[in-house]
Amino acid sequence: MDDFYQLTPDQQAERLTLLARHALQHWDLTPESISLIKYRENAVFKVITADNTFALRIHRPGYHSSAALRSELQWMAALDEAGIAVPKVIPTADGQLLVSVQTDAVPEARCIDLFAWISGEQLGSVEHGLGKDAESIHRTYRQIGLIAAQLHNQASQWPLPDGFERQAWDAEGLVGNSPSGAFLGAAAAYTGSAGTVATGQRQSQKCTVYAGKIPGTTA
Fold this sequence. Notes:
By secondary structure, this protein is of the alpha+beta class. The chain folds into two domains: about 5-115, 2-Layer Sandwich (Phosphorylase Kinase, domain 1), CATH 3.30.200.20; about 165-219, no CATH class. About 40% of the residues lie in helices and about 15% in strands. The protein has six helices and five strands. It has helices at about 10-25, 65-80, 135-155, 170-175, 180-185, 190-210; strands spanning about 35-40, 45-50, 55-60, 100, 110-115. Strands 1-2-3-5-4 form a five-stranded antiparallel β-sheet, covered by helices on one side. The longest helix is centred in the middle third of the chain and has 24 residues, at about 135-155. The protein starts with 8 loop residues before the first helix and ends in a 9-residue tail after the last helix.
């Protein structure tokens, strides 16, 4: 088999589509169509069957453990039960929230999950922001704030299941020696004077976070 990681993104997407089709056997689903929605850290597909629509997610390898991914799905299911509008997690035919699937199309096994499809529209883009309608932007951020409050309320009262594993977005998780954010972890790749500067910046940001402030802000 060709080196998957030497293929173009479009060629990789074709291979991942074959993997997605194969994985749907775990849900006893026969797709009428499978179309790629987004391919970045993960590959997300829109799956249409005779009577329903789903979102299938293929995780990139080596980024999160299967325990961490399963924990995410457990929390999403708990949020759904609490009445918070999140994509509904669809278990496999034998009740699993997450499966590991491997085919000849992709070199390693991939963790895959499935969600009920939620219709909607994109709020904005990196290039164009949220538009120029100030009132619409105000409503959007107000709604985001309300949802964030619901998440905090649910999380503060939810007893964690055994084996729950997710990264922490605290000072250590953000700017510690092993930060959760991949963009901050990139500093570890620097050597020499560049590495010294990156390490110094991370340490300064850590002190700022511990002081109750967010790096890059004046709050």
